[in-house]
Amino acid sequence: xxxxxxxxxxxxxxxxxxxxxxxxxxxxxxxxxxxxxxxxxxxxxxxxxxxxxxxxxxxxxxxxxxxxxxxxxxxxxxxxxxxxxxxxxxxxxxxxxxxxxxxxxxxxxxxxxxxxxxxxxxxxxxxxxxxxxxxxxxxxxxxxxxxxxxxxxxxxxxxxxxxxxxxxxxxxxxxxxxxxxxxxxxxxxxxxxxxxxxxxxxxxxxxxxxxxxxxxxxxxxxxxxxxxxxxxxxxxxxxxxxxxxxxxxxxxxxxxxxxxxxxxxxxxxxxxxxxxxxxxxxxxxxxxxxxxxxxxxxxxxxxxxxxxxxxxxxxxxxxxxxxxxxxxxxxxxxxxxxxxxxxxxxxxxxxxxxxxxxxxxxxxxxxxxxxxxxxxxxxxxxxxxxxxxxxxxxxxxxxxxxxxxxxxxxxxxxxxxxxxxxxxxxxxxxxxxxxxxxxxxxxxxxxxxxxxxxxxxxxxxxxxxxxxxxxxxxxxxxxxxxxxxxxxx
Length: 489
Known about the structure:
Elements lengths: L5 H4 L4 H5 L11 H11 L3 H4 L1 H9 L3 H25 L6 H8 L2 H30 L8 H16 L3 H32 L23 H6 L2 H8 L15 H10 L1 H19 L11 H9 L4 H33 L9 E2 L6 H20 L4 H6 L2 H24 L15 H19 L4 H27 L13 E2 L5
Parallel strand pairs: 1-2
Helix pairs in contact: 3-10, 3-13, 6-12, 6-13, 6-14, 6-19, 6-20, 7-8, 7-19, 8-9, 8-16, 8-17, 8-19, 8-21, 9-16, 9-17, 10-14, 10-16, 15-16, 16-17, 19-20, 20-21
């Protein structure tokens, strides 16, 4: 649904609400949406990034994850309110376009697209690295190429196949974390394994206290923790292809608190109780370190398989979302027109194909600089991902104000505590961005942001000039019915 279709949506035609959006097929059921939502909150940020965060903050990292988790819940409820007002495939960029203006919609669509391209490169690079755990003879670039091509092929078949693959990817991650929690509880309470004599909940405060690096150390981990939650908003992109969005999406969003409580806070409490925080080091998975302390020889291999799954899941999600974002931009006259085409299976293959071509650049990076590839592309992901959260919150505030004045229909899924919760979340994100500026390792992403903003500004001026020449309002060029191109199937 493009912006010019909003008024028709407000007519309250229930049949229209249940019809496929913009030619997409509603192939994602409740089971798949729920697991996509769960999987979006579990990634390499937890399995690997938590090691660095623990070394910087000690046990207080648990508090950091809890606070950020609360902010993430506020963001997701704000998104849920917008989704129930108008479930659309373009999601964030559509809401930005409607409530914040065409330029913000343009920036949001292209920035979220770039976020997933960069994340796709990062995750494929990580996956290629994990393969070398079993066979160092496989070139990193070759593994990255195989993964990229294979996931692209899956995304060309149907949205049901994408959903099914994400379901099983998420199932692996969930099973691994639950298994780790149960084993850890057994070690702590029953005292078995090599770590049985030292495993205790007292490890949470016995080695320098709960804040061994002070409050400052905890604050400096916030950007790492925020990175761990990036992609949790992906469930919003599925709105145009969910079988029953007004029933399925609220359920998925309302599971955010227990997901964060179990998979992040619960897992970290157990891990830091089994093993002292002083054991963990940056670049080493805390799960691997915990399994080694417990004395399970297969533990490292199991965790390596799980993080490989997490990386492939993220890359798969990236391919899914990039095609939808490019098509939404094209439908609103803010991107090349050929991105509007759909295959006979209702898939935006042109947008996905171009995005994958960009991701293949990551294969070249793996070939040229295999040791530094991950660091070359990861720095921009956090700031671009947080932009989507900022837009969600700002759009929800504008929507709620209009709805309260009677200018728009009220959402069936209001964000509790809004507008105060949304304002708090925006202030928190602003604080994290400031902390990124203080941290030399994270500062590079802030250097990249103005360059990207300049590129977008020039691009938008070109669109305005084109539209003015055609006698159109900016960003309103040629919004036609969905195009299906059977040749793209």
